[in-house]
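In this supplementary section we document a worked example of the pipeline. Step one takes a protein sequence of length 269 as its only input; no multiple sequence alignment statistics are reported here. Step two produces a three-dimensional model, which step three serialises into structure tokens for compact storage. The input and output of this example are shown verbatim.
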Amino acid sequence: MGIVIANIIAIYRRELQSYFVSPLAYGIASAFWFLAGLFFVMILLGPEGILVTVSAYDLQSQQGFQFPNIDVPYEFIRAFLDRMGWLMLFILPILSMGLYAEERKRGTLELLATSPVTNWAVALGKLLGVLTFLLTMILPLMGFEAIALSNSNPPISPTIPLLGHLGLLLLAAAILSLGMFISSLTDSTILSAVLTFAIVILLLFVDLIAKTIPGPIGEAVSHLSLLKHYNTLIQGIFDTSGLILFASYIILGIFLTAQSIDALRFQRQ
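The serialised model returned by step three reads:
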């Protein structure tokens, strides 16, 4: 067991270091921070942002108009994480496209396939590496959110942003895991990114497809939607079925990746 953990850590460190020396990774991070910052400012301070809307409601309420109460911190977190989920749809396929495709292109995948390190350990180490790099991209945004929410009165319950960011990480892990499997099938990074994007679109909107299927089958298919369960978490609702679904996608991606490399190892033998 100790050898397996050591192998996972070795692959994890190798994968994580590769991102911090890659110009593409820095380009992805820069684009991510720019777009996320733009969403942050527009949601909070934009012409139709939350603060402007609330100020307009307050002004009109003083004139006798009645408006529903708005929980500003909650609406801000929900709206911002909703935009972040959509942003992940475009960022994550690019991050995952080179996990195995680059190994194929450089000819090092055969070395991994025939090495004594198990395919599960390689896949898990790679997934943890790219997920850690993504976390380093998200942490600065969490700092800005904390600054914005620190002035809220009454203060927002910490459960809501924690569940929301947990949902964001689980969504990212599920997409990266499936993208890793797609990357293991081809040596083309562009094809890997396009196929991952297509699969993610299908999984995000599978609940719309399920509405066309009557009966319990349609209800069962709707539970496969990543977007449905992600929206539940960013609303501050703890749903164990959503956690199980995300975990299932993560394990499925790792399993399929290991089987794909096993098939390559069998071909080489």
